[in-house]
Design brief:
Elements lengths: L6 E4 L10 H10 L4 E4 L16 H9 L6 E6 L1 H12 L4 E7 L7 H16 L1 H12 L8 H12 L3 H19 L9 E6 L7 H10 L4 E5 L6 H4 L1 H19 L2
Parallel strand pairs: 1-2, 1-3, 3-4, 4-5, 5-6
């Protein structure tokens, strides 16, 4: 049998690979698989995006940096990219896990995210603070140092590059949504029960749209599931990967 396939992590808009630090630590304690966290195009160590891009453009960039085959775990925008890879490059994807993912937004949901996009275009720093308040309300009990680190990462973005990436996040669920029924790799969708943007209803939609997909909803958790509940998320994902791996013999 070949060595175990690695787990590759894809973050969300405005963040970078460091958002996975606590989650990676939890996975490393519970699994002997290699864990790789990539920076998305325009984020972290990658150069800023200088033009409008599509979901396919982002996915192609990531595909060029993936191992030959891996277990993909995508968060938010990263989940849409992972879904695109599972659909169009299934030979590269052993399993697909969508964390805090949007799915087939309703008209009201699409209008809401478009309003956030427009706010980011006119008041970038204000939109960052709105995201922080939405993700980490005072009663969430998140470590202030963690919140401060996420804020610094968001504010460090090139605003134009951020908008190019956010526009994909705001619109590409309709594009990939039409393809979800043809994804054939083992799939899991998981979100927090208090996530106002990537709602439990969206996770239910993903579970219905992707054939055979599993779903999970983590209680008392908002959007930043890998940061708020790294140990529980690691347990859910490792169990899914190991059970799927026994079937696909990675």
């Amino acid at each position: 049998m070949d060595a175990k396939l690695p787990i590759v992590l894809l973050h969300g808009v405005g963040l970078d690979s460091t958002m996975w630090d606590q989650f990676r630590d939890e996975v490393s304690r519970a699994s002997d698989r290699e864990v790789l966290a990539l920076d998305l195009p325009g984020h972290g160590s990658r150069p800023p995006l200088e033009r409008e891009v599509s979901l396919g453009d982002l996915a192609d960039d990531v595909a060029n940096r993936l191992p030959a085959r891996a277990h993909l775990v995508g968060f938010s925008l990263g989940a849409l990219i992972a879904q695109h890879l599972a659909r169009f490059h299934p030979e590269r994807v052993a399993t697909l896990t969508s964390v805090s993912s949007v799915c087939l937004r309703t008209l009201q949901e699409a209008e809401s995210v478009d309003a956030r996009l427009q706010n980011a275009a006119t008041d970038f720093s204000g939109s960052v603070e709105a995201s922080i308040q939405r993700w980490f309300p005072a009663d969430a009990g998140t470590d202030p140092a963690t919140v401060a680190g996420v804020r610094r990462t968001l504010l460090a973005n090139d605003p134009s590059s951020y908008l190019h990436a956010y526009r994909v996040f705001a619109t590409a669920d309709a594009e990939i949504g039409a393809e979800l029924g043809t994804i054939a790799v083992p799939s899991l969708a998981v979100t927090g029960d208090q996530d106002p943007g990537s709602t439990p209803e969206m996770t239910r939609r993903l579970g219905e749209a992707i054939p055979g997909a599993r779903t999970a909803v983590v209680p008392n958790t908002r959007h930043m599931l890998p940061v708020q509940r790294p140990a529980e998320l690691a347990r859910i994902i490792i169990e899914f990967i190991e059970e799927s791996s026994r079937d696909i013999h990675d």
